[in-house]
Automatic annotation (TrEMBL):
Gene3D superfamilies linked: Electron Transport, Fmn-binding Protein, Chain A (2.30.110.10)
Protein name: Flavin reductase (DIM6/NTAB) family NADH-FMN oxidoreductase RutF
Keyword terms: Oxidoreductase
Species for this entry: Virgibacillus alimentarius
Residue stretches making up the Flavin reductase like domain: 10-150
Pfam families, alphabetized: Flavin_Reduct (PF01613)
Length: 157
C-alpha cells in the first residue's frame, strides 16, 4: 500500500485542531496535532500521538506533563504557527495552569500528567491523566483533506 494513499485515506476523517504544549524549564514548546482522543471517564484519561522524530517527544518525556488546547475557528493562525506553515507575527499568548502552558482563549483545554506512554510504529502514544480542564462557547477549527474549515451545524426539521 502506498504511503500517500494511506495518508489521503486518513485525511477523509474530519477532525478538530489542537495545539499540544509543554514547558521544560522556562521554555514553552508547542505543536499542532489532530491525533487526540478521549480514552476513559474513570479515571479521566486522554491520548495524544507524537511522531518519534518530532522535537516535542523528548520535551513531553522530560516535563512529564502536557496540555491539549482545542482551537476555535478564529485561531487558524495559531495552528499554522505551530505547524510551521506561517509564523504568527504578534506571537502566541499562553496562560499557565499549574505551570503547564495552554493557548489563551482556546475553545477548550485539557491539562495532564503523563500517565503512560507506548511506542507504536513510528509514533509514541502518550496517555494523559487529566487534572484540569476549561472550556468556552464557540465553534471549533476543523481539518479535512489537508485543509482548514469551519464547523456548520446541521439543522433538523
Amino acid at each position: 500500500m502506498d504511503d500517500r494513499v494511506f495518508r489521503n485515506t486518513m485525511g477523509k476523517f474530519a477532525t478538530g485542531v489542537t495545539v499540544i504544549t509543554t514547558k521544560v524549564g522556562e521554555d514553552v514548546h508547542g505543536m499542532t496535532a489532530n491525533a487526540f482522543m478521549s480514552v476513559s471517564l474513570d479515571p479521566k484519561l486522554i491520548t495524544i500521538s507524537i511522531d518519534n522524530k518530532a522535537n516535542m517527544l523528548e520535551k513531553i518525556k522530560s516535563s512529564g506533563q502536557f496540555a491539549v488546547s482545542i482551537l476555535g475557528e478564529e485561531q487558524q493562525d495559531i495552528s499554522m504557527h505551530f505547524a510551521g506553515q506561517k509564523k504568527k507575527e504578534d506571537g502566541i499568548d499562553f496562560d499557565l495552569v499549574h505551570n503547564v502552558p495552554i493557548v489563551r482563549d482556546a475553545l477548550a483545554t485539557v491539562v495532564c500528567d503523563v500517565h503512560d506512554s507506548h511506542v507504536v510504529g513510528d509514533h509514541t502514544l502518550f496517555i494523559g491523566k487529566v487534572f484540569e480542564i476549561s472550556l468556552r462557547d464557540g465553534n471549533p477549527l476543523t481539518f479535512y483533506q489537508g485543509k482548514y474549515g469551519n464547523y456548520a451545524p446541521v439543522e433538523y426539521a
